[in-house]
Amino acid sequence: MLSQWLKTSKYTVVFTGAGMSTESGLPDFRSSKGLWKKKDPSKLASTEALNNNVQEFIEFYRGRVLGVKEVGPHNGHFILADWERDGLIQSIITQNVDGFHQLAGSIRVAELHGTLQKLHCQSCRKEYNSEEYLNEEYYCECGGILRPSVVLFGEALPEDAFQMAFEEAQKAELFIVLGSSLTVTPANQFPLIAKEHGAKLVIANMEKTSMDIYADLVINNQKIGELLQELDAKLR
Ligand code: APR
């Protein structure tokens, strides 16, 4: 059914979460082995942590920057990039900060939560490559602290990514969620915005989500990589 919908839809938007990157070797946040099962995000991934707990903040994010540099996109990311090139999908809205969609060749990507591939100075906002953290460079030439260009809890989402996601969700005829628990606002509003504007909503996630009741199709207990592989074979 989904391969049929993909073929006939004139405007398809894919929305990804951490479940898109676990098969690359990165942990997600809320499943049994998730990052937030071991660490309290508010103590680490927040502006409060950056201001009052900077040593632990830098240690935590240096580890995550190292993590995304050590692994990379898996076959599922490359399939989505091929689908964009073939005109099967028109854009990706991602909550992920690993940059794997772009590394796999996807072009129209809205990174709602920023990226670990870049750093910027908390004082003067000068941008740096996240390699600086790997070289244990933590301060800007202006003296300000360098932090990853991810959205910390307590910060607003990047305006341009939010705007693009809003427009894409409104234009979608088919909106496919891949690997997200859909628990974090405002990111989890985009599937609803798409639905409100007449899109068919598909939620593919290992576990059930609270938004499954709004979906036209729910796919549980299947790995995203395998699902994309199967769909790609049917579309060829
Ligand atoms: N295939 C299918 N589903 C998977 C796979 C997989 N290979 N691996 C994990 N999942 C599912 C998990 O069951 C889980 O429900 O992906 C979902 C990921 O949910 P979360 O861990 O909550 O991640 P996400 O929804 O992306 O979190 C949103 O929260 O902490 C913030 O900024 C962070 O962007 C993140 C946001």
CATH topology of the largest domain: Rossmann fold
- What ligands can be seen in this structure? adenosine-5-diphosphoribose
Q: How many strand segments? A: 9
Report low-confidence residues grouped into runs of 5 or more.
Answer: none
Report the β-strand fraction as a percent range: 15-25%
- The total tally of domains equals 2
Secondary structure class reads: alpha/beta
Number of discrete helical segments: 11
CATH architecture annotation name of the largest domain: 3-Layer(aba) Sandwich
CATH superfamily of the largest domain: TPP-binding domain
Distance between the termini: 15 Å
Mean of residue pLDDT values: 96
Helix percent band: 25-40%
Tell me the Rg in angstroms: 18 Å
Strand order of the largest sheet: 3-2-1-7-8-9
- What's the main sheet like? 6 strands, parallel
CATH class wording of the largest domain = Alpha Beta
The ordered string of helix (H) and strand (E) elements is HEHHHHHEHEEEHEHEHEEH
Report on this model:
With 236 residues, the protein is of the alpha/beta class. It has 2 domains: 1-26 and 73-113 and 158-236, Rossmann fold (3-Layer(aba) Sandwich); 32-70 and 119-150, SIR2/SIRT2 'Small Domain' (2-Layer Sandwich), CATH 3.30.1600. It has helices spanning 2-8, 35-38, 41-44, 47-52, 54-70, 75-85, 100-103, 131-134, 159-171, 190-196, 224-235, and strands spanning 12-16, 91-94, 109-111, 114-121, 127-129, 146-150, 174-178, 200-204, 217-219. The strands form 2 sheets. It has a 6-stranded parallel β-sheet with strand order 3-2-1-7-8-9, with helices on both faces. The chain has a 3-stranded antiparallel β-sheet with strand order 5-4-6. Strand 7 (174-178), helix 10 (190-196) and strand 8 (200-204) form a beta-alpha-beta unit. Helix 1 packs across helix 11 (224-235) and helix 9 packs parallel to helix 10. The chain is elongated. Bound molecules: adenosine-5-diphosphoribose (APR).
